[in-house]
Specification:
Largest sheet of chain A: 2 strands, antiparallel
Helix content of chain A: over 70%
Distance between the termini of chain B: 42 Å
Structural class of chain A: mainly alpha
Helix content of chain B: 25-40%
Mean pLDDT of chain B: 91
Radius of gyration of chain A: 25 Å
Strand content of chain A: under 5%
Radius of gyration of chain B: 24 Å
Oligomer: heterodimer
Mean pLDDT of chain A: 88
Largest interface: A-B, 23 and 31 residues
Low-confidence stretches of chain A: 1-7
Distance between the termini of chain A: 39 Å
Strand order of the largest sheet of chain B: 6-7-8-3-9-10
Order of helices and strands of chain A: HHHHHHHHHHHHHHEEHHHHHHHHH
Number of helices of chain B: 9
Number of strands of chain B: 18
Strand order of the largest sheet of chain A: 1-2
Number of helices of chain A: 23
Number of strands of chain A: 2
Shape of chain A: globular
């Protein structure tokens, strides 16, 4: 009898260990080790010794300085403009009263469903040498360079600004504004005294996120920067073109700096918001005020219109005969044979499915393992699991090529395989996926697990029969999140593609490089169609799930 | 009449929150709007504050309509259930905010703020931020903030509901004293009848968007007009006309004319006297000892009754007793509640 009773806890313990070991080995091998490698490479000298020579060399190189200067001024300009415009939309959505907000809410995610070079592509159709504007007005505007890149990145970054600022605006308590109103404060005064202090950290955080995303983003820069060299393209040229791995490592490490600062600010912002969350918040329901709301609505729709237009024009251009001369409908651009044809699209779908399936599974068992751990150990692992978000995709890509392109370890086997691309996609988005599922586990009532345990169920059957159904909406969300991000991401994977193995976003870049802009547009349209389909399926599954759970409740 | 609301009607979609409501507040008066949740009391307060619009009716102060005046310009003070202090300002800045808006010189503001901090007994908290204060302390600051500018009317929206019992009692007494000493006309919304009884000069009892009865706490407790008011203002034994006629017909003499189901008898638990009587028709079912009083449940020909006596009682469960109800303690109330009394 006693052996029968003691078997179960032992089985649970084994399962807990197994649940932890696999994801932790993964994190170590595919995140910590590459990051460590990039650091070591940055201080490894040509003769094999250690030193800071690489840093001094890099800092002394004029190419590096020019790219840094360019990246800084472009990143800073993008940050100012996109935080300002994003703030207008967030403020319009949350604190003004006008119709059609659902339209803004539903189309603003558009840039996140396409590779981050779509804005550049759209701008070229619009403002390029053969763009509509130049043709119609007979102008000679040159979109390539600083302004083209800044504009493209701004349009790409605004949705993220809207989300960050919106998340803090939604926490503002209506009663506080009513109190100020009763005390005689005018709206502008309320904004200055109440809103601005409350969203200060969100504004700062949005600024940093935009800055980091734009200086580390590869796609738009590759398409529209032209001769204007920026860090992202410079690294790519140095590492992939010139095999200058040490400089790549140095720049990779240096690109981590702004992220560390941003991480710190985000933590502070979250701590501050937590402090304000204790009282029950009355949501703010704005009353219509023509003087405020009509201009705000116009501004919001105008900005969102721009964001949508640059994406929509790419889709439109993929269906017309000869941009911008002949707008007759055609499907000929979809007949793509160069740059590997549609092969890379199918491979990318495969990679994305792999990252989604494997990633969701790993995230689930990691959270399951954490369930039975003492708080101190569990928190350490949580910090580790949340770390990848601090590493820009381009740095992670660099770290991977430095790690897996080296024949000194058996990991070299993975180099050049689709598996490695699926792996990098998963670890690139590990944090967001982990946090989503962790939120689900946190909401899981402890009593339910204990009830299941007291009925004699072990951790394994509790996980499958009780926990998994409970967190299934989060698992579905994470699965599709990983799939959609893997379909469109560029900056991490661009280092790992080979002539034999391409992904969709890279193919689009190659097509554009080859001057086949319309085919690049057609390929982009295909990628967006796949992602939109995935998004639709996800919404469908989630709505069926929520219907089912409300019916059973 | 200082502040009046006349024929106020308010809809939220198809839901009628207020239906032709008229109330008034005299200078210096403490008025409580009392009723269950959803009765329209908070809507009425928000309309008076200017935070919500009226569909029909008028709000007047000193005979002047306030409808065209925004909340900002009415010069009223408000305290919410959720404290709602400005989280990014210190306690002193919170209290002085209204004065700062009115461009009062800084030295006068700080003098007024420290005066108010003394009144609310938090003189050492000037530089703290609201997050560092307890709920009761925050609500004191909210009160000081509301009265700092000498408002023409003070509006309190369930100010004590979020606090625990002990703090609630203390703050209730402080609000009472403060209002008496400052003489600010005050309108408080509450669903707690005890709070209303303790604080109000006048209670306005509301249900389903209409005023059911308005009067002094004494009137509402001892002369409830309807069954709803009687049951809302404390415990009561509701007895049907038929029961009274067959068991205690002498109580019928004060009954207004009307059909049997139009009026019920309301007898407060403390008004029923019970006497030892082995031959009595009532028997004691249970005795609950609550410290200051005992709650005795009886089975009697009148039905199940609740009787309250001061302190402990010598009665025992199962004991037979006889009942004594004075004519003045039998209150006939209009039956405004669906279903009839026992």
């Amino acid at each position: 009898m006693s052996s029968l009773f003691s078997r179960r806890p032992d089985g649970d313990k084994l399962l807990t260990i197994a649940c932890l070991v696999v994801p932790l080995i993964g994190l170590t091998l595919f995140f910590l080790y590459p990051m460590f490698t990039v650091f070591i490479r940055s201080i490894t000298l040509a003769d094999g010794g250690l030193g800071l020579q690489n840093y001094t060399d890099t800092l002394a190189s004029s190419g590096f300085w020019r790219a840094t200067r360019h990246s800084m001024s472009m990143g800073f300009t993008t940050m100012i403009i996109s935080v300002f415009l994003g703030f207008i939309i967030a403020h319009g959505l949350h604190r003004c009263s006008f119709r059609g907000k659902w339209i803004i809410r539903s189309v603003i995610i558009l840039p996140l469903l396409a590779p981050s070079l779509i804005q550049a592509l759209g701008l070229i159709f619009l403002l390029g040498r053969n763009g509509v504007i130049n043709r119609v007005f007979g102008l000679e505007l040159d979109i390539y360079g600083f302004w083209g890149l800044t504009l493209a990145n701004t349009l790409y970054a605004i949705p993220q600004v809207v989300m960050i600022i919106g998340a803090s605006l939604v926490l503002l308590d209506a009663r506080i504004y009513e109190a100020a109103e009763m005390m005689g404060a005018k709206p502008i005064r309320q904004f200055r005294d109440l809103t601005l202090p409350a969203i200060f950290f969100a504004l700062l955080n949005a600024g940093f996120v935009v800055f980091i995303v734009t200086i580390t983003d590869f796609g738009n820069a590759a398409v529209i920067a032209g001769d204007y060299s920026v860090l992202a393209t410079e690294i790519y040229t140095q590492v992939v073109g010139l095999r200058n791995f040490n400089m790549g490592a140095v720049v990779g490490i240096m690109l981590l700096l702004p992220t560390v600062v941003s991480y710190y600010i985000e933590r502070k912002a979250m701590a501050r918001q937590k402090g304000q969350l204790n009282s029950n918040i009355q949501p703010f329901i704005p009353r219509f005020q023509a003087g405020r709301d009509i201009p705000m609505a116009a501004a919001c729709f105008f900005i969102v219109g721009l964001i949508v237009a640059v994406v929509a024009i790419v889709i439109y251009a993929s269906f017309v005969k000869l941009w911008p001369y002949n707008f007759d409908f055609t499907l000929k651009h979809f007949d793509i044979t160069t740059a590997g044809g549609y092969g890379s699209l199918w491979i990318t779908i495969g990679i994305s499915l792999g990252a989604a399936v494997g990633g969701t599974l790993l995230i689930f068992i990691l959270n399951l393992g954490l369930l039975r751990l003492p708080a101190a150990i569990s928190q350490t692992i949580q910090v580790l699991a949340a770390m990848p978000a601090a590493v820009p995709g381009i740095v992670l890509g660099l770290a991977y090529i430095l790690t897996f392109n080296s024949t000194s370890t058996p990991l070299y086997m993975l180099y050049g395989t689709a598996t490695l691309i699926a792996v990098i996609n998963f670890y690139h988005y590990h944090t967001q996926a982990f946090l989503t599922v962790m939120t689900g586990f946190r909401q899981f009532p402890k009593a339910l697990e204990e009830a299941s345990g007291s009925l004699g169920a072990g951790l394994g059957s509790t996980a499958v029969n009780v926990i998994a159904p409970f967190v299934s909406p989060m698992l579905v969300a994470v699965f599709f999140f990983l799939f959609m991000r893997s379909m469109v991401t560029l900056s991490a994977v661009v280092f790992l593609t080979t002539p034999q193995l391409n992904v969709a976003a890279v193919t689009i870049m190659r097509l554009d490089d080859a001057g086949l802009t319309s085919q690049a547009a057609a390929f982009s349209t295909c990628v967006m169609a796949v992602v939109a389909l995935a998004l639709g399926i996800m919404k469908l599954i989630l709505s069926i799930q929520s219907k089912r759970s409300t019916r059973s409740a | 009449m200082y502040l009046t609301v006349t024929n106020a009607t308010k809809h939220y979609g198809s839901f009628r929150a207020l239906n032709d409501v008229s109330i008034s507040i005299e200078k210096g008066e403490f008025v409580c709007l009392l009723g269950p949740s959803g009765c329209g009391k908070t809507s009425l307060l928000r309309i008076i504050a200017g935070l919500a619009d009226l569909d029909k009716g008028d709000v007047q102060l000193n005979g002047q309509s306030l409808l065209k005046l925004s909340a900002r310009k009415r010069g009223f003070g408000i305290v919410f259930q959720s404290y709602s202090l400005f989280p990014n300002m210190s306690v002193a800045e919170n209290i002085g905010y209204g004065l700062k808006i009115r461009k009062v010189p800084a030295d006068q503001i700080s003098a007024r703020v420290s005066e108010l901090l003394n009144i609310i007994k938090l003189p050492q908290f000037a530089d703290k931020i609201p997050g560092q204060l307890s709920g009761g302390q925050q609500q004191r600051v909210a009160l000081a903030r509301a009265i700092a500018v000498n408002p023409r009317v003070l509006l309190l929206d369930e100010p004590l509901s979020a606090l625990d019992a002990q703090v609630r009692g203390e703050l209730r007494d402080e609000i009472h004293q403060l209002q008496r000493s400052l003489g600010i006309p005050t309108l408080m919304v509450t669903h707690d009848q005890e709070e209303a009884l303790a604080l109000a000069d006048k209670i306005i009892c509301m249900n389903h968007g209409v005023v059911v009865q308005a009067g002094t706490p004494h009137e509402l407790y001892h002369k409830p007009a309807t069954r709803f008011v009687a049951t809302f203002m404390g415990t009561s034994n509701m007895l049907s006309t038929a029961k009274i006629r067959s068991i205690m017909p002498e109580l019928l003499s004060t009954r207004p004319r009307g059909d049997d189901d139009q009026y019920d008898a309301c007898i407060r638990p403390e008004s029923i006297r019970i006497v030892d009587n082995p031959a009595g028709e009532a028997s004691i079912v249970s005795i609950g000892f609550l410290g200051n009083l005992s709650k005795i449940k009886l089975e009697s020909p009148l039905g199940n009754l609740i009787v309250e006596v001061q302190g402990a009682t010598h009665f025992k469960e199962q004991q037979k007793v006889s009942l004594d109800i004075a004519l003045v303690d039998c209150i006939w109330v209009a039956n405004d509640v669906l279903g009839t009394a026992e």
